[in-house]
Amino acid sequence: MTATTDKDDRTGSILVGYDGSMGSRVALDWAIEAAKRLDASLTLLHCVTLASVPAFPGYEPVEIIDSLEGVSRSILAVGFERATKALGEGRVERINAIGSAPAQLVGSSKDADFVVMGSRGRGRVLGGVLGSTAYTVTAHAHCPVVVIRTDGDDVSVPPPLPGPDRRVILGVDGSEESYHAIESAARFAQTFGAPLHIVRVAESISMEAWAYAETARAGTESTHAVTEQAADTVEQARAHVLAAYPGVEVETEVLYGDPGRTIAELATTAGLVVIGSRGRGGFAGLLLGSVSHTIIHEAACPVMVVR
């Protein structure tokens, strides 16, 4: 497994998985704009694996590797030129790698503020470096991961960015992961001048039973406890944001239903959704919970997953 880079020091950069596909081009454009606003550097990574290359007796392994590296450099050169034109010399780096795409992206994420990856359509993620690795990278990266979705072949309308009319939605549930997500969400809201909408979705075993208890019996001890805990969670998150980012406009809301689908529905008018990788309801062995998984595949705007 090999990798070559223009620079060794990539601390503080945005890492983008790039393979020349439509999804990766859209992800790159989003990352470029984010780099402008955040005053960050950009690192593009392209990875090819020997497992995808047929073996021919007449070829030496070194010849195959040289050929693959040449192809990788050619693909990456296009993205590098595009990013350099937008950001200027010295702010863009590139990594050509041969080996495991997930391992390369996860390893390089140690030196990044966050990773940006492209996806295409609901429920389907692009092939190559952005394909089967997307779940792995989102679950194992050492920094937050932003997943950018594109629908169909029309990329004339770029994915939204946070702004005055495109709020940042922060999903919280009181877990350690959602607590870590607060800082990322507040930072983006402040940098992009966007309102921050903090949401806690309370979920009961039976929503029908919940509705009956709330309407027919004016609530029960159990439903009141869930509501109070949810309200306390969003208020704690709000206080944390305002203590560090007093200029951010913050709104809080407690909703009821399926957490993943409820937050995904809110994303229709948002510029970014920020969530923890695994909340209180996740199994201990799962690094990417069902809620975050649902939001990634169903939200209409970019989604940042924070571990």
How much is the average pLDDT?
A: 79
* General shape: globular
Beta-strand percent range: 15-25%
Task: Pick out the low-confidence regions.
Answer: 7-11, 121-131, 279-287
In spatial order, strands of the major sheet run: 1-4-3-2-5-6-11-10-7-8-9
Order of helices and strands: EEHEHEHEHEEHEHHEHEHE
Helix segment tally: 9
Strand count? 11
Q: Major sheet: size, sense and barrel closure?
A: 11 strands, mixed
Radius of gyration: 21 Å
**Ends distance:** 27 Å
Helix content: 40-55%
* Structural class label: alpha/beta
Polypeptide structure, described:
An eleven-stranded mixed β-sheet has the order 1-4-3-2-5-6-11-10-7-8-9, sandwiched between helices. The chain has helices spanning 22-38, 61-87, 101-108, 133-140, 176-192, 207-216, 221-244, 259-266, 290-298; strands at 2-5, 13-17, 41-48, 92-98, 112-120, 145-150, 167-171, 196-202, 250-256, 270-276, 303-306. Helix 1 (22-38) links the parallel strand 2 and strand 3 (41-48). Helix 1 (22-38) packs across helix 2 and helix 8 (259-266) runs parallel beside helix 9. It is built from nine helices and eleven strands. Residues 7-11, 121-131 and 279-287 have low confidence and may be disordered. It is α/β, with parallel strands linked by helices and 307 residues long.
